[in-house]
Structures are given as structure tokens and as C-alpha cells.
Amino acid sequence: MKMKLILNLLIIVIGMQTTNAQSDLEAITSTLMDYVEGTANGEPERVKRAFHPELNLYSVANDSVRVWYGQDYTGGIKTGRKSNRIGRIVSIDYENDAACAKIEILMPGPKRIYTDYLLLLKYQGSWKIIHKSYTYVDYPN
Questions:
Q1: With contact defined as beta carbons under 8 Å apart, do 47 and 77 qualify?
Q2: What letter does residue 84 receive in the DSSP assignment?
Q3: Of 41, 126, 130, 140, most Cβ neighbours within 10 A?
Q4: Which of 60, 33, 44 is nearest to 120 (CA)?
């Protein structure tokens, strides 16, 4: 009888952990899609919802680190103005309240493939992108 009770409790605990993990993965994915779709479809409010207010974007240009302030980035997204970009989530890794994600953005206009590396934190009940580092390569000819 005791063994059966212990097994049942173990099954419940494992089930709860799986449900929480699935919920976090869904929430992270939703945040990432707010960023990807918000930038593609001219929805600055979606992008702002995904980003922490103090987020900055980082890249390298001429062998120097370039900082793009997040508020300037989101301020450049015009409501309703779609951009010719196709984004997809490549990977998500998370533990507890910290996550990292890799996003790929195809830009047919300038013929570039951007790769974004994003750091996320879960606080006050939601996941926010707190850091973005990115790079690009030109389409192969």
C-alpha cells in the first residue's frame, strides 16, 4: 500500500513538471513569435511586449562592437508596414527562469540571412527577451 502511494505521488510530481516545462516552452515560443511576427508585420506593440524595456541589440562592424538601443529599434517599426523578412525559431534551451534561443531571419531584399542569439528571463509571470546579439551572412550566389 505504501509503495503504491509513493508511486502515485511520483507520477503526479513528474506529470506536474512536464506540464510546467511544456507551459514554459509554449510561453517562450510565444514571446519569440511576438518578436519574429511583430517585426515582419509592422506590429511594434508585439515587439515591445516581447522585449524587456532596457534591451539592447549587439553586433560587430569593422571589428568593433556596435550597440543598437532597443527603444530605437522598436521605434523604427512602423505600424502596419510589413517587411520582407521570414523568421523561424532554430532552437530554445531553458532552465527554471532563464532561456536562450536562436532565430534565423531570411531577408530576400538585401539577400542576407540574419542569425539572432537571444537571452530571455522569466519574471513577474512572463518571459522577456533581455539581450539580442546578431550577425548575418549574404546569400550564397
A1: yes
A2: S
A3: 130
A4: 33
Over residues 24-40, the mean pLDDT reads 97
Query: Are 122 and 24 in contact, with CB atoms under 8 Å apart?
Result: yes
Among 27, 24, 31, 25, which residue's Cα sits nearest to residue 47? 31
Grid cell at residue 113: 540571412
Q: 6-36: buried (b, 16+ CB within 10 Å) or exposed (e) per residue?
A: eeeeeeeeeeeeeeeeeebeebbeebbebbb
- What's the pTM value of the predicted model, to 2 decimals? 0.82
* Cα 13 to Cα 23: distance, rounded to the nearest angstrom: 15
Angle at 90 between CA 89 and CA 95, to 5 degrees: 90
- Cα distances from 33 to residues 6, 48, 88, in angstroms, run 40, 12, 8
pLDDT tens string 43-67: 999 999 999 999 999 999 999 999 9
What DSSP designation does 134 have?
A: E
Identify the sign of the CA torsion 72, 121, 89, 27: negative
- Rounded Cα gap, residues 19 and 27, in angstroms: 12
As a whole number of angstroms, the distance between CA 115 and CA 120 comes to 16
- In angstroms, rounded to a whole number, what is the distance separating the alpha carbons of residues 96 and 58? 25
